[in-house]
User: Fold this.
Amino acid sequence: MRKIIRVTTVPMALKVLLRGQMRYMKKAGFEVIMVSADGAERNEVMQYEGCPHYVIPMTRKITPFADAWSFWKLYRLLKKEKPDIVHSHTPKAGLLAMLAAKYAGVKIRIHTVAGLRFMTASGFTRSILTKMEKITAHAATHVWPNSLSLLNYVKQHKLAKAEKLEIIGRGSSNGVDLSRFSKSVLNEEGIRNAREILSQDPSLFYILSVGRIVKDKGISELAKAFASLYDENDKLRLVLVGTFEERLDPLDGDVMKLIKNHPGIILAGWHDEVEYFMHISNLLVHASYREGFPNVVLQAGAMECPIVCSRIGGNIDIVDEDLNGLIFTPGNEIDLYDKLKQAISDPAGMKRKAALLRRKIEENFDRSFVQEKLRLRYEALLESGKH
Assistant:
């Protein structure tokens, strides 16, 4: 039986970013093993995917001594398991897995690029992160950016040889599950719970943001633009579904104070069933500075929630400007304010855009379509022997 080892830095990536992919490949006849650091999601992931999981300690930061130990443990695991394919996802897992797989003699070594951390870094940190990406690509036999815009960026910055680069399907690491993210399958209890969390008032206009509440996600500009809009219209509400991250990318103190004290901002906390918040909100804003192929935008589009997003790679592969959503310049509070004001003033027009986006997602990014394309590519690589 053909064996695939999927490697991510933390089990959350297996649970959220790659959900169902390992189970699909197992049903297609592959033996699949998952590898990541330990985490609260590990048992849930093993149960859902029906595949074994090995714990290899990994950190998301630059930790040379810990990374060397992780590399050695990965190398020994790969020598023991002798997989046909090692496929990594997330930056640290990619670096360690591609190097370990190369030295272990694994013929097919695939790394999916789903965003580049160095894009928002500077100085020495940017230099180190860029070098890490180049080492990962050098050790891989195949480098798969998960969007056309990201592939062009990788080419432009010469992070990988052109012959290694490829997009699976039309982009996305795993597509969107339309059997879940569709208005027609929602249940009344879930809708009622989401409304209770927000204390929803039909007279208010709800702007939703889903994801980590950190600088990189454009939360500073979003909070400030919203505060300006609220001064003009106190019927607006900004709903933040997500958690603060104090260590890797914390918000400035003044922004944190604004978010926690503003009467129009609702901190809803993290929820797995984000589709219900997308359903009851008037608008979704994705203000991120960098992405690979953002699941939040795919999910909101599938839920026919109107979208305002930043003009960055990934977002622009999903949303076509002024056709099926509105796009603003990343990091530009004034442009974001203008686009939000435009969306708020034309709810009917935004709903029409949302319907067009749903159609595009159905045709290009359905999860079953993406997973089938991935399976076919795996099989072609195994059959061709051109590694």
In short: The first strand starts at residue 3 and ends at 7. The two ends are 19 Å apart (CA to CA).
